[in-house]
Write a structure and sequence with these properties.
Number of helices: 11
Radius of gyration: 22 Å
Family: Belongs to the sulfatase family.
Distance between the termini: 39 Å
Low-confidence stretches: 1-27
Protein name: Arylsulfatase
Number of strands: 20
Strand order of the largest sheet: 6-5-4-3-11-1-12-13-2-14
Structural class: alpha/beta
Keywords: Hydrolase, Signal
Shape: globular
Helix content: 10-25%
Bound molecules: 2-acetamido-2-deoxy-6-O-sulfo-beta-D-galactopyranose, calcium ion
Pfam families: Sulfatase (PF00884)
Length: 508
């Protein structure tokens, strides 16, 4: 145990800081909860204007806070997006932040300072619950799934963790609590591989008759280990008693989030609550099945909305609502068919998960990274809509500023303080944001420049316009938010200007 100066002098801190001032200090600092959805698009939440879906709890949250219309994730897929948000360091500065396998080593290095470290050093209790997808253990494939998985979330600032290692569609399909697999029977150890199958373990591609819950979409992978009647990405053996139940994932993580809040009700806390909804495989709880009229994807969004409502109810019950700042957002844009035959495409109807924007998850176009974003701190945030240009990269510096911490040299190098913008006190946003999909893009409030690259223009499997082109692309977002007309040739100056911004950022 480290002793601080007061301890060494035999003094208790309460003698040095009178109780009232300590209390005052603590009440000034709000609890902070991130609710991070998975693959939920701008148009998937009714507060953003689509009439085809009803998400009342998110609407209620939005009505108590600021709803942003021009907010961006750093990347159009999960791992790089989450990496950037939690570290304040652009994922594209590293070449190892692509979509992580379920047995990837921990991508955030213990020596990096995360948002959780920042809160912890300010005296907050910290927790991460839900989807992780940023690797665990030292190196790919070296984790001890049957023992203590280290390094882990404790080494990057989270006191408590209850996580899915990667995604719902990647093995191992188990929860990991404080770096140990939950409910594991030592007589049935887990083995995980992303290289070769385990002899005797049936695979989805050979045994379609065992796929009783969901089948993969044609030619869309997801045909390896079979867990709970669904084939996944990666190979897995054993750990039967520890397997999660897909229809209970939202219930499990929501109840853990509630317990975390209850356990820390007398203490400032930071909770990173990352839902599995609406990622594939979509197996919402029977309570939500059929409720959206849009099939499993819509039902999963209603399940997400339910989780949001449960968190809000808990805060109200404990009298914490007024002193808790909630950020609700998504890791990347929407995708309808992401690999399973869940009828999301057939049942979509008039619903536009991407809202008025082009593209979706994986895409350089706006819908890849223009995500739902709400900041609510009742009584403290102005209520209403902000069209300020904001990025998840800035949450680190802005929340450091909220808790009165000065960002240290080298920490969260790409993150800037936009606290007043996030709190709705000003509509002054960023001059530009940088986004990563197949290529890098730079957007201002008015323009979007997508760098030329050799990637495919279209992904047939997911029906996504990826926005890759060998030609430079420039769109006028003010007159053409759907990015229909490439005006690069007519606006040479603008292209140059945005190119220079990007080159300067890359050189940092
Ligand atoms: C892709 C998967 C997709 C999804 C994605 C990660 C295939 C063909 N597609 O590789 O289903 O898992 O990775 O999604 O395997 S994310 O939201 O976590 O980034
Ligand atoms: Ca995602």
């Amino acid at each position: 145990m480290k002793k601080n100066l007061f301890g060494l002098l035999g003094l208790s801190t309460s003698l040095i800081f009178p109780a009232t001032s300590l209390f005052a200090q603590q009440t000034k600092r709000p609890n902070v909860i991130f609710i991070l959805a998975d693959d939920i698009g701008y148009g998937d939440l009714s507060c953003n204007g689509e009439k085809t879906i009803h998400t009342p709890n998110v609407e209620k949250l939005a009505s108590r806070g600021v709803r942003f219309t021009d907010a961006h994730a750093v990347a159009a897929t999960s791992t790089p997006s989450r990496y950037s948000m939690l570290t304040g360091h652009y994922s594209w500065r590293r070449d190892d932040t692509g979509i992580a396998a379920g047995n990837a080593g921990m991508i955030i290095r213990p020596e990096q300072t995360t948002l959780a470290d920042m809160f912890k050093s300010s005296g907050y209790a910290t927790g991460a619950i839900g989807k992780w997808h940023l690797g665990l253990g030292d190196k790919t494939g070296t984790q001890d799934w049957n023992g203590f998985i280290t390094p882990g979330l404790k080494d990057i600032g989270f006191d408590y963790s209850y996580i899915m290692a990667a995604t719902g569609d990647r093995v191992p399909c188990v929860f990991v609590e404080n770096q140990r697999v939950v409910n594991l029977d030592p007589n049935d150890p887990i083995e995980v591989s992303y290289e070769k199958p385990f002899p005797g373990e049936p695979l989805g591609k050979d045994h379609p008759e065992l796929l009783t819950v969901l089948k993969p979409s044609v030619n869309h992978g997801h045909n390896q280990a079979i867990v709970n009647g669904i084939s996944r990405i990666g190979f897995m053996k054993g750990g039967k008693s520890a397997l999660w139940k897909d229809e209970n994932i939202a219930d499990s993580i929501t109840s853990k989030a509630i317990s975390f809040i209850e356990n820390n009700k007398n203490h400032p806390f930071f909770l990173y609550f990352a839902t599995n909804d609406a990622h594939v495989p979509r197996v919402p709880n029977p309570r939500f099945v059929g409720k959206s009229g849009m099939g499993a994807r819509g039902d999963a969004i209603l399940e997400f909305d339910w989780s949001v409502g449960e968190i809000m109810k808990t805060l109200e019950k404990l009298g914490l609502a007024e002193n808790t700042l909630i950020v609700l957002t998504s890791d990347n844009g929407p995708v309808v068919d992401d690999g399973y035959q869940d009828r999301a495409v057939e049942l979509l109807g008039k619903h536009r998960p991407w809202g008025p924007y082009r593209g979706g998850k994986y895409s350089n176009f706006e819908a890849g990274t223009r995500i739902p974003f709400i900041v609510s701190w009742p009584g403290k945030t102005k209520t209403g809509v902000s069209n300020a240009l904001v990025s998840q990269i800035d949450l680190f510096a802005s929340l450091s500023s909220l808790v009165g911490q000065k960002k240290k040299e080298g920490v969260a190098p790409d993150s800037q303080d936009y606290l007043n913008t996030f709190l709705g006190k000003t509509k002054k946003g960023r001059k530009y944001v940088i986004e990563q999909a197949g290529a890098l893009s730079v957007s201002t409030s008015d323009w979007k420049y997508i760098t030329p690259n050799n990637g495919p223009a279209y992904n047939k499997l997911t029906n996504t316009e990826l926005g890759n082109s060998k030609e430079p692309q420039l769109y006028n977002l003010k007159t053409d938010r759907g990015e229909k007309v490439n005006v690069a040739a007519q606006n040479f100056q603008k292209v140059e200007e945005l190119k220079v911004i990007l080159e300067k950022e890359k050189a940092l």
